[in-house]
């Protein structure tokens, strides 16, 4: 069943878009990521203009995050205080990101900038996640001797002033660290149409030292607030949100997030991180191919 997208000015298969939203919703509940890192590139591969894909994907991220947060809160997997600090940073970051987005639009290089940022971020973070997951699974042998006892949080975080207690996470750290993480995620949400979860989740584990049981839910509560604000910013400033496309993605995303949250209690966390890293690297490779490869002939004539 084809349906017309007014802002994108094209027709798409509605069932395919709903299925994409469902797949991203499962990833959202499973890994604590908004899913935009997958939604936006796939929409671009399908032919949706990058600006429309970025803006519309944030609406789907909001819906999937609502569903995922509710599921994780039921099992006590959310550090609300940590989430509120990250939200404060994310809202400021989203305003900064909106300014950068409009500058990129004015330069006429928005599509290229989005593609390059995706390749860099997905490639670097995907590799780091893959390496750490393989170490945890015993598949990667490092020449360096690692301390048998892992540090709770990074030395830079430990050096920051004005410490607070985050009881659900079991941490006593400065709020400046999660505030900065939220700011970065806010910028990425506006610029790339991602929830920022694929940056937040590794940072929350390896920089802040948060307890794994609350990382996914806390990430989602921050993504929920920031992606909702980002949707409003895009709707009012860039005017790139295609409501029909967003509704189709949202339909599949809300349902998929519930199934993803249930799977987190049944699957091994290290295998989940390994799987997510592979997905991220595959998307990065496809984005890089799209930026560099061009067919010899853009048009061909076939004689009948």
Automatic annotation (TrEMBL):
Its main location: membrane. Keywords: Cell membrane, Membrane, Transmembrane, Transmembrane helix. InterPro entries: TM_pro_TauE-like, TSUP/Inactive_protease-like. This is Probable membrane transporter protein. It comes from the Bacteria. The keyword Transmembrane applies. The chain crosses the membrane at residues 12-38, 44-70, 82-101, 113-130, 179-207, 214-237, 243-259, 271-289. Coiled coil: none annotated. It comes from Sphingomonas swuensis.
